[in-house]
Design brief:
Blueprint (H helix, E strand, L loop, with lengths): L2 E6 L10 H14 L3 E4 L2 E2 L2 E2 L4 H7 L12 H11 L3 E2 L8 E4 L4 H6 L14 E2 L2 E3 L5 H17 L4 E4 L14 H11 L10 H25 L4 E4 L6 H6 L3 H7 L4 E2 L8 H15 L11 E3 L1 E2 L2 E2 L2 H13 L4 E5 L2 H16 L11 H28 L1
Helix pairs in contact: 1-3, 5-7, 10-11, 11-12
Length: about 375
């Protein structure tokens, strides 16, 4: 049993632009040995499926390039035919736009804007942000997720480094300031990295994710809630992502920290730290790190990709998710060929929720036995 996943994007890719391309890609992935796809369904302020939530809130039902189609329905149909699991990915999360001053969403809903300590629209690395701490904004994203799980035969949903997230420079809007003052009878710290202020805002995002987790499970308890955050503790300091708490509270079923490193020693150092410091026997089955195949002109070498996968297995990490599909097709399908001939030569079933939880409960039993063993040993010595 392994998690062998790949992200499908609309950026630098034509896969989602026709049903023919989708069918061809699903065949290719199944033949290569993958067992789960994470297709984008929310980016650039639009959905890749006809959304009543978007139509009612913003008057735009679907990504303009997909009008007259339902790419998500096409993915479900084609993936099911070749035995792939489908976990839709809400890529933009709480981001509103990229270098568009908030784009359509904040043009229509300026009160949803996140603000920095100067009162400006919150912007980080080119992305402008919705206020992820605002209950209305949270309800909007929750509704996007729920209409997907209610209307499509999917296996779960996925958040990422923007969902649940907010750049730590945010939180200086009137609503959040008022909420903080009510609780602490003082203004929020001007230093956005103040530890207590970081934790207070991160806790609001964690509570939102806990509610989302419960709502998804209420639709179908077997749906998987997956998330691909940035690496802790950097992600906590920069984007209020408190992934150890998510794991401890049991509000993620699978987690894919983005170990996007371009040399093996850097990858190994982070993987070692995750396994030794952030995961336990009970949570390790949920870990399948994100691997960077391609970005811009960069493309991982086949040797390095195999080295990562072999190292993951040596650490007891039961899978990985590759960013992103087009990397597999580069250089005459070099990466796909090496996967099919080596680490993915034997097919592997995708773990069910009960598999993930069985692994957790078995390791909990082992921990309990160890605890009793230690107790008796201490008693007699």
């Amino acid at each position: 049993m392994e998690i062998r996943g790949v992200w499908l994007t609309t950026t630098d890719s034509q896969v989602l632009r026709s049903q023919h391309n989708i069918a061809e890609a699903m065949d290719f992935l199944a033949t290569t040995g993958f067992n789960v796809v994470f297709p984008v369904v929310w980016n650039k302020g639009v959905t890749l499926y006809p959304s009543q939530t978007m139509r009612q809130t913003f008057g735009i039902e679907i990504d303009p390039l997909s009008v007259g189609r339902d790419p998500l329905a096409e993915i479900v149909k084609e993936a099911r035919q070749v035995g792939l699991k489908i976990i839709p990915w809400f890529e933009y999360g709480f981001a509103s736009s990229y270098n568009l001053n908030g784009g359509l969403l904040l043009q229509q809903k300026p009160e949803w804007a996140a603000r920095d300590s100067q009162g400006n629209l919150l912007k980080k690395n080119g992305f402008e942000w919705l206020n992820a701490l605002d209950p209305e904004v949270q309800a909007f994203l929750m509704n996007l997720v729920l209409e997907v799980v209610n209307n499509y035969d999917v296996d779960g949903i996925q958040g990422d480094d923007r969902f649940p997230a907010l750049p730590s420079e945010g939180g200086y809007d009137a609503y959040t300031i008022g909420r903080y003052q009510q609780e602490f009878h003082r203004q929020p710290p001007q230093n956005p990295k103040d530890r207590q202020w970081l934790q207070w805002r991160a806790d609001i995002l964690t509570e939102f994710w806990a509610r989302l987790y419960q709502q998804v499970k209420a639709v179908n308890p077997n749906l998987l809630v997956s998330v691909a955050p940035n690496i802790y503790d950097w992600a906590f300091q920069e984007y209020l992502q408190d992934s150890p708490t998510w794991l401890n509270r049991g509000i993620v079923d699978m987690i894919h920290p983005q170990i996007y490193r371009r040399d093996f020693s850097s990858y190994r150092a982070i993987a070692d730290k995750l396994v030794k410091e952030q995961f336990t026997d009970a949570t390790l089955p949920k870990l399948a790190p994100g691997i960077l195949l391609k970005l811009g002109s960069y493309c991982i070498s086949p040797e390095y990709l195999v080295q990562i996968i072999e190292y993951n297995r040596r650490l007891g990490i039961p899978g990985e998710v590759c960013f992103f599909y087009e990397g597999l097709r580069e250089n005459n399908h070099a990466l796909a060929k090496v996967l099919r001939n080596h680490p993915y030569a034997q097919s592997a079933s995708f773990p069910s929720l009960s598999d993930l939880n069985t692994a957790s409960s078995v390791s909990k039993q082992q921990q309990n036995h160890q605890g009793w063993r230690n107790f008796w040993q201490n008693l007699w010595h």
